[in-house]
Specification:
The structure holds two protein chains of two kinds. Chain A is α/β, with parallel strands linked by helices. Helix content of chain A is 35%, strand content 26%. Helix content of chain B is 62%, strand content 12%. Chain B folds into two domains: 388 residues, no CATH class; 195 residues, no CATH class. The chains are: A alpha/beta, B alpha+beta. The interface between A and B is medium-sized, with 37 and 33 residues.
């Protein structure tokens, strides 16, 4: 779904200025709907969803399978376009911009943690963490140092040069966490981050997400993990049949 | 039958991949069919030009050149079929692992994939032959437009094309077996965990060009099996294009040089107008055949020695050479040779008789430096013969003799000279004058420092005072070079076809590579890689493999062109080879860019950046 608008460097610097001037809403969804065409059938994944998430909030979304949670994350992460409504991330109407701008926006403003880790298979652990930094054109000497520190923070200082298949599931997810923090983004999005992990690894991921939130990051988590859905500091939401509601 | 049903259902459910494989193989068959048909026409065209005067060795050179191209194209086709199937099997490893893990027999899996390969192969051959024939018809129209004077007869070689199609089916069948066999032999454990066999290659030679090149180098290292066959097919494609371009240029330039060496540069001829007219008509590739009634033997044709003296002292003259030319009947002389099989001496030779031009030269002061095979002439009763005479009149010319005017002359060498289409013999001037019992020469060649009109007009004034005329031989030489250049022009579609074949190989490799790592590319984009970065990575991947195959191919082609294609090869300038290699590399880079465009567009068209892509 390409957009007609194009992005220039001036546009980007304008957005950077806006962000640095202080953002009230990390995420704003205004009457967002998303409809997929599956052959002749239309599937409503999101139905008129509105949501305000202030900076520094920890939001946990739960709901049954196929309820639209992942579609919601796609919207918040700037990965998908709404069929109707507006999506604002850091007060930037992300849906109005082209893919090039959105990519740059994702690079600096969002960090993803996926259920199935999604490490680039041909890159080592440190290279996976370095990758977003390299895309940001940071100083190459600093990049390796910062990536090593991030991997050390997630307890993988001895696994820097291992390829993804040489790491356990928990280790891969920790690399994914380190990669999500690579450009120090204000928003961290996690889709079932502990679903496939053993209890020890899951605990480490939970701790990392909480510490990120404590450090002022907006953390948006889709999870069925009771240890996450039961966090008292979190705002709990529920998705059902594409409709978002506050969890009772 | 069950295998075939399942195979065709499987193909239908993977329309994108099936179409890509079909397109890739169809194109190769189409090009081979086109090249086969069109190259045969080109051979006919060169033969037609040959009949107008191109000497036999030249025709043989071009013929060998075209046949070499055809053989290379056939090999290329087989490698492309093999690499296409191989790449396809790389992408099906997981399916094979699943089939094996649920208990499917290896033979069943092998039959299933072979049925798929054969279905695609048969469809490709039918479509390819049809498309190749259409391209051939278009080529014929172009040829008819380019050379309106030539009459073409359309004889579709049905049986040869049928044979070619059968060759493709057999070659494709056997080429597909190896990658399928290798794939089905893989253990289900490694096939179901593809990453466990991942071997990331070392930093590629292009890694210094940035992040996208480093990522591409690692990605290419992953597909060792698929990449290897693509490298081979690209190597062949680029070698073919390079041999056709570099080698073709070398052949053309060397042929020009052969012709120029035989005729001499900046030469004007002085003689009787009748002699000059007939002689240069026989020297021109576009001239008429020699009139058999013209013998050049007439007392009025003799160039006076006083004129020769004057010409020697004329301004601008480097040297002059007196020649005696005769059109006469010549006969193949026999030879007695030892037959080791029968352990006895045998007589060879069929006493063939033909009309030829004999040229008497002063071997120690001739302006011609013929390219020849054999030995130099050192005695009065020795002779060199032209290529056409050697092939049409002799069994083993270098041990036989040439019989003329009752004399038997030992054939010492075969010289490259297009005079009279190669039906020519060159012998010692004084011996020839004795044989014909004449005292004067009938042709004087005057070599000038430059083709300056003032020099030529002075020579014309001198000659006309003796009833003689001047002929601008340089014009005939340039005309001959233009004709040779024209024949070369006809072959230009061949390297373009070879490059197109490289384009398709690259495109298919990139398609398989990109969609094999679709998930990696989506992850890159999800963490913030711009579409331009993805495009650069695809181009980098194509460049990496393209240069890995292309650079050695161009270098090998350059060496083959200079040292293997034609003896005494010459190049237009010192910069020719590096310039051509540079040009081929530029063409290759252009090919990579062009191949990346459709891959990128397909990728962008299919990539929904959704987290759900990665779920489960």
């Amino acid at each position: 779904m390409p957009k007609e608008s194009t992005t220039t460097k001036d546009d980007l610097s304008e957005v950077d200025t806006e962000i640095s001037e202080g953002v009230q809403h990390a995420v704003r969804l205004v009457n967002v709907s998303r409809v997929y065409a599956m052959g002749n059938t239309e599937v409503v994944a999101l139905s008129d969803v509105s949501l305000d998430v202030t900076s520094g909030e920890l939001v946990v979304v739960s709901g049954p399978s196929g309820s639209g949670k992942t579609t919601l994350l796609n919207m918040i992460g700037g990965l998908d376009y709404p069929s109707s409504g507006r999506v604002l991330l850091m007060d930037v109407p992300i849906g109005d911009y082209d893919e090039s701008f959105r990519a740059t926006f994702r690079l600096t403003n969002t960090g993803f943690v996926f259920q199935s880790y999604n490490l680039i298979s041909t890159l080592t652990a440190i290279e996976n963490v370095m990758f977003p930094m390299q895309l940001s054109n940071k100083d190459s000497k600093e990049i390796r140092k910062d990536a090593s520190m991030l991997l050390e923070r997630v307890g993988l200082s001895d696994r820097l040069n291992h390829l993804p298949w040489q790491l356990s599931s928990g280790e891969q997810q920790r690399v994914a966490m380190a990669r999500a923090m690579a450009n120090d983004p204000p928003i961290v999005i996690a889709d079932e981050p502990t679903a496939n992990l053993d209890s020890e690894s899951a605990e480490m991921i939970r701790s990392l997400l909480i510490s990120l939130n404590n450090a002022g990051k907006t953390v948006f988590v889709v999870s069925h993990d009771e240890d996450i859905t039961g966090l008292p500091s979190a705002r709990h939401l529920r998705m059902d049949k594409g409709v978002l509601s506050a969890n009772a | 039958m069950r295998d075939l049903d399942y195979a065709s259902t499987d193909l239908k459910r993977r329309p994108f991949r099936s179409t890509t494989v079909l397109l890739s193989m169809t194109t190769v068959v189409a090009f081979t069919t086109f090249l086969f048909l069109f190259a045969n026409t080109l051979l006919d065209v060169t033969s037609a030009v040959t009949s107008l005067g191109l000497s036999s060795p030249l025709g043989v050179l071009y013929g060998a050149f075209i046949w070499t191209t055809l053989v290379l194209v056939l090999i290329l086709g087989a490698v492309v079929v093999s690499s296409t199937v191989s790449l396809e099997m790389v992408s099906r490893r997981k399916d094979i692992g699943l089939m094996k893990s649920i208990g499917t027999l290896v033979d069943t899996i092998f039959d299933h994939f072979m049925a798929q390969a054969v279905t695609l192969l048969l469809a490709s051959v039918v479509l390819g032959v049809a498309c190749g024939t259409l391209m051939y018809l278009a080529g014929m129209l172009w040829l008819a437009y380019s050379i309106p004077a030539l009459q073409f007869s359309f004889n579709y070689p049905l049986y040869q094309i049928g044979g070619l199609a059968l060759i493709y089916v057999f070659v494709g069948y056997f080429a597909a077996q190896k990658p399928i066999y290798d794939a089905v032999q893989e253990s289900p454990i490694s096939a179901l965990s593809p990453d466990t066999t991942l071997r990331v290659g070392p930093a590629g030679f292009l890694s210094g060009f940035g992040l996208s090149f480093r990522i591409a180098a690692k990605a290419t290292g992953r597909r060792v099996k698929g990449s290897r066959r693509v490298v081979v097919s690209l190597f062949l494609s680029v070698s073919l294009a390079s041999v056709l371009w570099i080698g073709g240029g070398v052949v053309e330039n060397t042929t020009d040089a052969y012709v120029a060496r035989a005729m001499g540069n900046n030469v004007v001829a002085v003689g009787h107008p009748d002699v000059l007219s007939e002689y240069y008509s026989a020297y021109s590739l576009q001239g008429a055949s020699l009139n058999e009634n013209v013998t050049f033997l007439n007392s009025s044709y003799v160039v006076p020695s006083s004129l020769i003296q004057l010409l020697a002292n004329a301004p601008g003259v480097i040297q002059i050479e007196s020649r005696f030319v005769v059109s006469t009947s010549v006969k193949e002389g026999p030879a007695i040779v030892w037959n080791p099989t029968l352990a006895r001496y045998e007589r060879i030779g069929n006493d063939r008789v033909s009309q030829a031009i004999l040229v008497g030269v002063n071997w120690s002061h001739t302006i011609s430096t013929w390219y020849y095979e054999g030995d130099p002439v050192s005695k009065p009763d020795e002779v060199w013969i032209g290529g056409k005479m050697a092939t049409s009149m002799y069994v083993d010319p270098l041990v036989q003799t040439l019989q003329v005017q009752g004399a038997s002359l030992s054939v010492k060498g075969i010289a490259f000279d297009i005079l009279n289409g190669g039906m020519v013999a060159i012998m010692d001037l004084s011996s020839m004058l004795s044989l014909w019992n004449v005292t004067g020469v009938n042709l004087v060649l005057v070599q000038l420092y430059s083709y300056d009109e003032s020099y030529i007009s002075q020579i014309r004034t001198m000659a006309s005072a003796f009833g003689m005329d001047v002929y601008r031989q340089q014009d005939v030489l340039l005309g001959n070079e233009r004709t040779i250049g024209g024949i070369w022009l006809l072959m230009q579609p061949l390297p373009v076809m070879a490059l197109f074949s490289a384009f398709l190989s690259l495109m298919y490799f990139l398609l398989v590579s990109v969609f094999g790592r679709f998930r990696d590319y989506i992850i890159m984009r999800s963490v913030g890689a711009k579409p331009s970065f993805v495009a650069k990575t695809m181009i980098a991947e194509g460049l990496g493999i393209g240069l890995k195959a292309g650079l050695p191919a161009a270098l090998v082609a350059a060496l083959v062109s200079v040292y293997g294609l034609i003896p005494d090869a010459t190049v237009p300038s010192l910069l020719y080879l590096p310039g051509m290699i540079f040009l081929i590399m530029l063409s290759l880079i252009g090919t990579v860019l062009l191949a990346s465009i459709p891959v990128y567009l397909i990728f962008i068209g299919r990539s929904d950046l959704r987290v759900s892509e990665f779920s489960a």
